[in-house]
Specification:
This protein is α+β, with helices and mostly antiparallel strands. Helix content is 31%, strand content 20%.
């Protein structure tokens, strides 16, 4: 942490202490003085007839989701809840614990599991994104039941969460996201007769919108914490100051948040468009935040700079480039399924919505995957006031992002099922703490027809269950090589890395029939006997074979080489050869995995002592999956060679005889 950052943090601590006098208790909320305002008018409504732009099937999906909410049912981060008809904003359904509701926010340690329970469960419903779903259901149906429920719950949140009271005021990112939700609830309900009474003429709404913006103006993520959090904070403040310019400081908040957003979008993003946190989920999240805020600025007549729009366009183009044939992005680094705006759950995932919006704002390139408009992209597209012609965009689909150290080896469009292989030789993460990074240098992620074969196991948890947090971001938890039982990078806490492995690409080439990538990292130079790990990955497109060769430059070391299989993959291990199959996948297949014979190979699934053999579909969810572990000793000059060959299931697999599926 730099001296400047230490000063900032000391200043914030002093300000937090002094702001205790600003805290508003529940009994005081109706008497608290609202900020002075001018004319209250919402001028950035959706155009007339916008609801008709939502495809009928997408509108049905919105109604289905809203009906589920009216019944009180909703899934949040892997937990199916039945209390959403009248939610307790401080209840954690995982532990049954109540987080502090009346304590001064800055005296609450939201990272303490014993104090708050699973904070993500509590924060998630207070993002109010289930209320944008209800508002969207009214927008497409004009059924007042949806609007009334959204209004009742929104007012309930405002009443129960007065300024600086309780755990929902402890994090700026949550406040920024909540402002975006409030803006879109107002926008989607614009024609509802009760909307001005809920927002424009409601002193409670005025207080809360003002308090949220006062908070963000005073407290901003800085220094080593200026990752996706600062972008969410700036995006929320920009959206609210544009949509609700009702306060004496609105113009100042708008200018400042736009300046911060532009600066941080460029800082947080490589020129290629990939996110510097090297966490694929956050790439989509930051892109969505940036687009929504930029569209708000357009609607307010204060557009962002050309440089900011160029970077947003690069984020869309790079996101489109790294998707597999099933529209799935990589699973690199942390992921918590964060969304900036939720209209309805989307089967196609975030990037279906993002590319749907992108083709309206910057135009679809020929190589982009085609997407069918969903509810989210249709509604946001209706808000687009102008399109942009961004120069210098890639003429063909990029496959190498040198600045981010990400290379994709993949088969051609017309060869199905697609083999898709992500190779990682990027920086460890972003900023000194690299909060959302994993110790995954030189790892590979391989899919066939969109099915995870050699899988990145995911994230599973953040603040709770520290042993699981450590496993899912460890070196042995990825498809790479571990030396002497140690991570390549040194973990200092659930969102802190003390030492970062540095990777570099040595050679990358594509000669048509084959593509090859070679890289190394220095994460093991700090061992008592220093070593470098070098890996070469070669995709032979004609034979549908992937070769992985690992070399250790140094003395003899204890080695563990891991290959994690996707949850749909079954495995049978015979010595140093494994037969893999995925018969229930959308595109079934069989592969033969020939493993390095110098190592002793074992098959693991769903183990807890130690943790091994797991896959996380998303935060709060884990499922057993096969993991192959090879143990042994390295030898100078003796590479470890692995071959993954995808077979024609009707012809070639017969040559290997019958195979059985073994579950442990």
């Amino acid at each position: 942490m730099s001296p400047a950052e230490m000063l900032w943090r000391a200043h914030d601590k002093a300000l937090q202490a002094s702001w205790s006098r600003k805290q508003v208790g529940r009994g005081e909320i109706r008497t608290a003085s609202p900020p002075a305002t001018g004319l209250r008018r919402f001028s950035t409504a959706l155009p007339l007839g916008a609801a008709g732009l939502v495809p009928s099937e997408a509108a049905k999906n919105v109604i289905t989701a809203a009906d589920q909410l009216l019944r009180g049912e909703w899934e949040i981060l892997g937990v199916v809840r039945d209390d959403m008809a009248e939610p307790d904003w401080f209840h954690d359904p995982v532990t049954g614990q109540q987080a502090p509701a009346d304590a001064y926010a800055f005296r609450i340690n939201h990272r303490s599991h014993s104090q708050t329970g699973n904070i993500k469960q509590i924060w998630e419903i207070s993002r109010l994104q289930h209320l944008t779903v209800l508002a969207a259901a009214w927008f497409v149906s004009h059924n007042d039941a949806y609007a009334r429920k959204a209004a009742d719950q929104l007012e309930g949140w405002w009443r129960e969460n007065p300024f600086l009271s309780g755990v929902n005021w402890t994090s700026g990112i949550e406040i920024g996201l909540r402002l975006i939700s409030m803006v879109w609830i107002r926008r989607l309900l614009d024609d509802w007769p009760g909307v001005t009474g809920l927002f424009d003429e409601n002193e409670l709404a005025l207080r809360q919108i003002g308090w949220h913006q006062q908070y963000l103006a005073a407290f901003r993520s800085r220094g080593s914490s200026a990752n996706n959090h600062v972008i969410a904070e700036a995006a929320g403040q920009l959206a609210a100051s544009c949509a609700f310019p009702w306060f004496p400081r609105s113009a100042d908040w708008q200018r400042t948040s736009a300046r911060v957003l532009e600066r941080e979008l460029i800082r947080n993003t490589f020129p290629s468009g990939l996110n510097r946190e090297l966490a694929s989920d956050y790439h989509g999240f930051v892109t969505e935040l940036g687009l929504l805020a930029a569209l708000e600025a357009d609607a307010a007549g204060q557009p962002l700079s050309a440089a900011a729009w160029q970077r947003l366009c690069a984020m869309l183009d790079s996101g489109a480039a790294v998707l597999d044939e099933q529209m799935r992005p990589p699973r690199q680094g942390d992921g918590d399924e964060g969304r900036a705006l939720l209209i309805a759950p989307t089967a196609g995932g975030m990037w279906t919505s993002l590319l749907g919006v992108g083709q309206c704002v910057v135009g679809r390139l020929d190589w982009w995957p085609r997407v069918v408009p969903d509810a989210t992209s249709s509604v946001i597209a209706a808000f687009v006031t102008r399109s942009r012609d961004i120069p210098g965009r890639p003429a063909g689909r990029p496959w190498r992002f040198a600045d981010a150290g990400l290379t994709l080896l993949r088969t051609a469009y017309n060869r199905e099922p697609e083999i898709w292989c992500r190779c990682d030789a990027g920086p460890h993460g972003y900023l000194s703490i690299a909060a959302h990074a994993h110790a995954d240098a030189l790892s590979v992620e391989v899919r066939c027809g969109g099915t995870d074969i050699l899988a990145d196991p995911g994230t599973y948890c953040y603040h709770s269950e520290p042993s699981w947090r450590s496993y899912f971001r460890s070196t042995i938890g990825h498809n790479t090589l571990e030396l002497d039982g140690r991570n390549q990078s040194a973990e200092g806490g659930p969102f802190l890395w003390l030492r970062h492995a540095n990777s570099r690409e040595i050679e990358v080439q594509d000669i048509g029939d084959a593509a090859e990538w070679t890289a190394e990292h220095d994460g093991y130079l700090s061992l008592a006997s220093p070593a470098r790990h070098r890996r070469c990955v070669r995709l032979d497109r004609a034979s549908r074979t992937l070769d992985i060769v690992d070399e250790i430059d140094g003395d003899v070391h204890d080695v563990r080489l891991a290959f994690h299989l996707g949850p749909d993959v079954r495995a049978d291990l015979d010595g140093a050869c494994a037969t893999l199959s995925w018969p229930s996948a959308p595109k079934p297949g069989v592969a033969r995995l020939e493993l390095p014979e110098p190592l002793r190979w074992s098959l693991h699934r769903g183990e807890t002592g130690p943790i091994l053999g797991w896959y996380s579909h998303g935060l709060g969810r884990r499922t057993p999956a096969f993991t192959l572990i090879g143990r042994g000793r390295s030898a100078p000059g003796r590479p470890l060679s692995t071959r993954l060959r995808f077979l024609d299931t009707e012809r070639e697999s017969r040559g290997f005889g019958r195979y059985s599926i073994q579950f442990q």
